[in-house]
Amino acid sequence: MTDTAVRPAKISAGFLSGRNIEGLIARGFMYVLAIAGCAACAFIPRSHYTPDVPADQAVFAKCSGYRPVATRAKTAIAGVLAFTSIGRRDERWYVELYFTVPSGKVVQLLSDHVAYASGLDRVHGIGAFPYVSLTDSPMWSSYINPALRDSLFAVREPMVGEHVIVKPDGRTPFGFDRNFWLAAYIDPIPDKDLWVTLPAFKVNGTEYSIPEIHFKRESGVAVSLRCG
């Protein structure tokens, strides 16, 4: 989730591509900031995608001193909330979707396919959600860590809503509606805006669909840094 021999450095044209330079700059900034004592926030020169939706249909990441950045599109349908975002793990982009399902609601996807189009020429591609995850790291549990497979189930199985009550020792109990997470890789790697079409689904037996979501590609994002 090395080769220790020392070899002469050789920098190729590919190594100096925009993607590699971007990665090197980002890692350099993170290293300097870590040495500086883990500042509360940092501006990282890293490409990201923001949903092109009205403010009341977006979830924002807030970092003191920087403008809020929209990170997820939020859709409310039949008492259920769906959140959609574009993320990146290493050099691979992916679509992430999660449903917040309260008691009395059952969500069932009608397909595992997520369609996307990139750029003004709208080059199309199809991805597939491999599983539904009960953890908030579907990329890690679905593709990488077999130890988390107990938290996964088939994409077309019903997602049965529940209001979960947590009672920490010595602390005030709190509750939340059950979340169900999915993620699918996007290949090839996009370098322009994305338009994402999610699979249709049923809520308590009635079919619904989320309109196509436009994600704008931007550069630079303020992030929180945590130490310890």
Give a topology summary.
Elements: H1 18-35, E1 41-51, E2 58-61, E3 69-77, E4 80-89, E5 92-101, E6 106-109, E7 113-118, E8 123-128, E9 132-133, H2 138-144, E10 152-153, E11 159-160, E12 163-166, E13 174-185, E14 194-197, E15 201-203, E16 206-208, E17 213-224
Antiparallel strand pairs: 1-17, 2-3, 3-4, 4-5, 5-13, 6-11, 6-15, 7-8, 7-14, 9-10, 12-13, 14-17, 15-16
Report on the architecture of this protein.
The chain has 228 residues and is mostly beta strands. It has helices at 18-35, 138-144, and strands at 41-51, 58-61, 69-77, 80-89, 92-101, 106-109, 113-118, 123-128, 132-133, 152-153, 159-160, 163-166, 174-185, 194-197, 201-203, 206-208, 213-224. The model is unreliable at 1-40 and 224-228 (pLDDT under 50).
Termini Cα gap: 21 Å
Rough outline: globular
Helix share bin: 10-25%
* Main sheet characteristics: 6 strands, antiparallel
Mean pLDDT: 77
Question: Over the alpha carbons, how many angstroms does the gyration radius reach?
Answer: 20 Å
Physical arrangement of strands within the biggest beta sheet: 2-3-4-5-13-12
DSSP strand tally: 17
SS summary, helix count: 2
Element pattern in H and E: HEEEEEEEEEHEEEEEEEE
**Uncertain ranges:** 1-40, 224-228
Structural class of the helices, strands and pairings? mainly beta
Note the beta-strand portion.
over 45%
